């Protein structure tokens, strides 16, 4: 693994890859979540995985509890480190963040080949969610219900104490997010969802189509919020296939 920027991790550097994929983790997640994706796409695509402050090797750094704040930092990191055609992939909170990063980059004249949003409703679809205001037991119950965490983690009290602050911080960021921009992306957009995801209905995911002037597609998989774990080979195949196509982004 290499880290040329505090925000970016390269698990499998691929300097000859024609395209780079910037991956943004879910709430409570870290860059290592995308290590299998980086390995599977290497050497066709170089994966740059975003590492939020307050976890893993950045655990001593202050966390950022707004999507706007995160998007500003990540967009600057992408500008510093991306040196080829690029795409964005975000899951759950990371999907909302990917959208906001893409907006900022487009305003600066940089356009993603494609934006992949996974496990998240469109920015224009608001829900009044307040998980970040729950006590620790309430946040743990939410996490259990999403079935994306190894059950052994819940039995490790020390580990739970370590990850709960990041979870609460990230839930606060995504639950207080307010879509405030009418900007429609020029980049094509692929929305991925589980057909039983309690966090995003099909109608809410389909609403992503209104946020791009480029091509839009929606793909549904059996499963809940973390469908992409069970269907990793299929999801990775979709990413690889879409990024192998010529760019269709209006310039």
Describe the overall structure.
- The protein has 251 residues and is α/β, with parallel strands linked by helices.
- 35% of the residues lie in helices and 16% in strands.
- The protein is built from eight helices and eight strands, in the order E-E-E-H-E-H-E-H-E-H-H-E-H-E-H-H.
- It has helices at residues 35-41, 67-81, 93-107, 136-146, 157-175, 202-206, 227-230, 232-244; strands at 2-5, 8-10, 19-24, 45-50, 86-91, 115-118, 189-194, 216-221.
- The chain has an eight-stranded mixed beta sheet with strand order 1-2-4-3-5-6-7-8, sandwiched between helices.
- Helix 2 (67-81) crosses helix 3.
- The longest helix has 19 residues, at 157-175.
- It is globular and about 45 Å long.
- The two termini are 34 Å apart.
- The relative contact order is 0.16.
Summarize the helix and strand pattern as letters.
Answer: EEEHEHEHEHHEHEHH
Please report the distance between the alpha carbons of the first and last residues. Answer: 34 Å
Strand order of the largest sheet: 1-2-4-3-5-6-7-8
So what's the overall shape?
A: globular
- Gyration radius (Cα, Å) is 17 Å
Sketch the major β-sheet.
8 strands, mixed
| Helix vs. strand class | alpha/beta
Work out the strand percent.
15-25%
In round numbers, the mean pLDDT is 91
Count the strands? Answer: 8
**Which segments are poorly predicted (pLDDT under 50) over 5 or more consecutive residues?**
none
Number of helices: 8
The portion of residues assigned to helices is 25-40%
